[in-house]
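Researcher: Go.
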Amino acid sequence: MLVLLAAIFVVHIATVVMLFVSTIANVWMVGPSTFGTASSGLWQLCNETCKQLTVSSHDEASLKAVQAFMILSIIFSVIALVMFIVQLFTLEKGKRFYITGAIMLVCWMCILIGVSIYTARFTGKVAKSTSSHHGYCFILAWICFCFSFIISILYLVLRKK
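Model: Structure:
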């Protein structure tokens, strides 16, 4: 049981780190440009230098929503990690990690909403690029989506023996 708890803890920490990287780094969409490779993220557009990401007025609300949901997912994931540690030392044997699992499900929903909005509104849009593809941050966000769902289900069914 101790090995299972340690494995869940390590995967949870990896998920938090990947959420930080995918939200902060600016490689959600990548495409060739006249100066090399251009990449855009949630915050900046990088070509040779990085500048603030500019979007059209009707896409601005969508970008703000993606930014907000990705930040919320980080917050909920960190809260769930803290709650896991607290519950690990305070729960009696045989109790379940319901609170931690529920918080991770909220994190999972935030990731789902944020990445889905980005997929629907911004796929293939890199300024000064003719053809683009998804970058590693976009892929990391979907990996975090899977990990957070698996972790949340494990928390909900896990008994402390």
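Model: The CA atoms of residues 9 and 81 lie 8 Å apart.
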